[in-house]
Amino acid sequence: PKAWMTAVLEHKLAPVNDPALENLDFGEEGPLKFDLVVEVRPDIELGDLGNMPVRKRAVAVKDEEIDGVLERLRESRATYEKVERAAETDDQILLDLSPRGDEGEFSEDAKIPDQRFILGSEGNMPAFNEQLVGASAGDVKVVAVEYGDDHPNENLKGKSMDFECHVRGIAVKTVPELDDEFAAVMEEGKTMADLRDEIRRDLEKEAGKRVDQELDRQVREELVRRHDVTPPPSMVERYLESGLEEMARRNQQMGRGVTEEDKKEYLEGGRPHAEEALKAMLLMEAVRAQEEIKVTPEDVDERIGEIAAENGFDVDRYMEFVKSGEDVQRIEYDLLERRTSDFLLSRAEITDVDADTDVFAD
């Protein structure tokens, strides 16, 4: 009986003289016995943590990268001026869209007014880029759109739809010259030389972060390679379930759900990554325990202040915000990970390589 099972299980965890068991009648066969299987974290005996081979890329920023940032800034300041001619690629076209309804008519009630397209943009449906080139203000064109089988909207997947386009105007794009006047618009008192130097510093900072991430990844992978660790199956399952939940949130934001095929593909493809990530996590925890790597509340407060300063936040207000939620635990964990990685890197065998080197290539 269930009551007996409960009593026996409790008995194994309670003192022998527990009054709850004094009058319990187990019958002629005596108490039931059970074998309990409980998953536990593996006992990890760390091996050699020294001389891990790590390659560190040089931090270098090419002029072409700076030019690319400047071009994006220039594009962000583009203006459009109305012209009386046929539309060309890169022109902005203003139109009203009316989808063809179930009755075969273009419904005025379903009209989507004031749509602006940059002809040739990758974000447009190809049919609009192809069929609206050459259109002029006042033209009415019917554009046939084919939706692929992989379209995120289930209602449109694999279907075609006609749109009646009432062209209302054409505008040509004008971008500013990259000169000192442009630099001063971006930040008062700046010259183009100043702006390029500032962009270079920002790019070098980002490149440095990427190099640090590569170093961390290398020591983790070497740590896993040196130790035979098997994470508990339930831990792997929870990791994968969390990934599925995140995928569902992302898909929902894009207007689509998660199919059974999506889940199957994710679980099959994501399991090796989940196992490797959990191995690394367990090993990093073991390193912290062995080397007594800790983080104090004062360390966390100091890091919160640094984050506030880096982002231009008011320190006191940001401190209050962080401590009102779960971000304190995340910051504490990040600090522990950082100090553990720093410990391993301090004992690693680091080789400097060129900036273009793929440090993960065999």
Question: What labels describe this entry?
Answer:
disordered N terminus; extended; two-stranded parallel sheet; 7 strands
- Name the assembly state: single chain
* Secondary structure: helix percent: 40-55%
Number of helices: 10
Low-pLDDT windows of residues = 1-14
Give the overall pLDDT as a whole number. Answer: 88
The main β sheet shows up as: 5 strands, antiparallel
Spell the H/E element sequence: HEHEEEHEEHHHHHHHE
The best one-word shape is extended
* First-residue to last-residue Cα separation: 61 Å
Kindly estimate the percentage of residues that lie in beta strands according to DSSP. Answer: 5-15%
Overall strand count: 7
Class inferred from helices and paired strands: alpha+beta
Radius of gyration: 31 Å
What does this structure look like?
With 362 residues, the protein is of the alpha+beta class. It contains ten helices and seven strands. The chain has helices spanning 2-13, 63-76, 126-131, 180-186, 192-226, 233-253, 260-291, 297-311, 315-323, 327-346; strands spanning 53-57, 79-83, 92-99, 112-118, 140-146, 160-174, 349-353. Strands 2, 3, 4, 5 and 6 form a five-stranded antiparallel sheet that branches. Strands 1-7 form a two-stranded parallel ribbon. Helix 5 crosses helix 10 (327-346) and helix 8 (297-311) crosses helix 9. The longest helix is centred in the middle third of the chain and has 35 residues, at 192-226. The chain is extended. The relative contact order is 0.13. Mean pLDDT is 88; it is low at 1-14.
